[in-house]
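To whoever is covering the structure queue this week,

Two jobs came back overnight. Logging them here so there's a record in the thread.

Job A:
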Amino acid sequence: MTKSFLATNRSVLVFLLVLSLFTLAVTVMAEATGYGLISTSFVKTLGKTLCLCLIAIAMDVVWGYCGILSLGHFAFFGIGGYAIGMWLMYARTEEIVAGSLANQPLPATAQELSDAIGTQIFGVVGSSDFPLIWSFAHSLPLQLLAILIVPGLLALVFGWLAFRSRVTGVYLSILTQAMTLALSLYLFQNDSGLRGNNGLSGLQNIPGVSVSQDDVSIWFFWASAVALGLGYVLFAFVTSGKMGSVIRAIRDDEARVRFLGYHVESYKLFVFTITAMVAGIAGALYYPQAGIINPAEIAPIASIYLAVWVAIGGRGRLYGAVIGATLVSLLSSWFTGGSAPAINLGFYKIVWTDWWLVLLGLSFVAVTLFFPQGIGGLFDFVAVKRNSDYGPSEGAWRAEEGKPE
């Protein structure tokens, strides 16, 4: 008898339960909806952390399960942020300009309104004309489609060219990093149409909705939690069953899978494209909570950090990616936000805002050398240890089933 998807993936139910309880706890303690035990700024931090968990899961699927070390997935994350940021900035500026022009004796024409909006948005880069890339910035539905279509199309074209040429290993990683660097350098230019180094700002306000930041923060937190839950279920489904077996086989021995008759390039292209689209969704939810996005967010170093999170959490395990992203994100906020107390050694004072990246790098090296299966590997170790208590035969079978990927 064939078991259902959830019956063979109990970790999905456990994750959804933990995520639901966490969301409920934050809601009860938030300033907007509960007892005010958690500040609005920390609710935003938690919401952003959930978004980082979502892209970490996407990275884990493409690297930990399929074996493609992509150093460009944060580019898709940033594209999603720019897509929603364009609508947020346009709609917010339109409200401000329309309000200022309402006091004129004669009503402003559509062209005057458009020119005034363009001046407000692009005056910082010495322009007032809307670039072609902003053609649909006035439409929320079209920009929501862009969050999925643009990262997905870019990943589809790039992946088709790379996988068709059978570029693998470190060479593929270099290509993905080069793609990210090229996009980042292009966005730094003032004539890119996205305000160059200034980026898009004021994204924390929802146009047309007169509510406090307390309410906005909890709304985005809820949206981030729902997206993470759906993303986890989606990728658990993708990595289970026959498809999951083929994907992991490609990671372990691509040549043998191709010899068995599977079209390896199609599987890799599917994984690369769908993870890029989910990364775009994560970025679209992240940057309104951050309030600003600029080209520095898409720099290649960001994608390297993403790989570090997955490695620390334990690649090849969806929950491992969540653990790694959560741990690093919250510790980063603590160390770089000034909450971590400085340590005075007498001859030198350790200020954690300066040493956080060093600490993160050392953690990555330590995990790689001494515990390559990451924090998530501890759960597998406990599961194997517990299953060994069933007896020699059954225990051996359960231990084999519980081995890390």
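Job B:
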Amino acid sequence: MPDDKLKGWNYLPEVPLKTSPFFTWPLNPLEMAKWLWNSWFLITEKLIFLGISFACYVWFQPPLEDMKTLEIGWLALIYMRNILLTLIVAGSLHLWFYTWSAQGQKLKFDPRPLMINGKQFTLGGQVRDNMVWTLGTGVLIWTAFEAVCFWALANGYMRLITFEADPVWFVAIFFLIPIWESFYFYLIHRLLHVPFLYRHVHSLHHRNINVGPWSGMSMHPVEQAIFLGSVFIHFLIGAHPVHILFHLQYYFLTAITTHTGFQGLLINDRNRLSLGTFHHQMHHRYFECNYGSLEIPWDKWFGSFHDGTVEANEKMQARRRKMMG
């Protein structure tokens, strides 16, 4: 690998990594439109999960009237739905990338395989450990938060937004959820890197230095609750049941897709679906950089941005040396 490229990686995207053009000056309307199009339209994670949330609402969602009381019937239904969604998304991605090795090392950031054994994994192996935390406490907390929101909507404790009554706000909420995620995630992520919380909570997620699909929601239950707790913003702004579905499915399932360890899904040697970001992959390896996402450039503003270049890597190492004395 040339000296002007970071060493130790199997695949590097085009660097320096770019953040959202909505926060650069002067504003470039063409770049802004391109960013929005690439983030949402044609075949994207956001559009796929939006479609899944509407499908779940139409075919697998109990009537709001039935959710006025917390009953085992509808609670079990949404729990099983969430288990099935997790198994389909994480399971199929794991099969494609790791069991079948359908695209080999193409677009894979880290050249190393997932760990079969490792002392840091309490359940004897990276994938098994990740699956237990994801399917165990992760889906349970996801379901519990959905249940609270649906119950609140049914009983009038959360404002119900309908397309008929307020079409603009109904549509706008879908676009605002990922923006809120970018804002919220940076703040809680920096909090989780406070030494006490890192040691007792966040370090479980960071067992995954090299990530796979099951790594995304492999977190301590406290972190899972904090992360998914972003949905409670709807007590302030209101929601329709499909907003709650999209919000939590987007948070939970994109955590899975962005931790595949691959830049995207190749079909006939073309990247048909962008998945993991090198930006977050570097966080798992280097720890002290890229706490947020590329949507809102918090890391740039607070000096923790690693753009994938050798120069940025040297600056990060200098920060580390300064912090250590």
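Note for Job B: The CA atoms of residues 159 and 293 lie 30 Å apart.

Please reply-all if you pick these up so we don't duplicate work.
Q.
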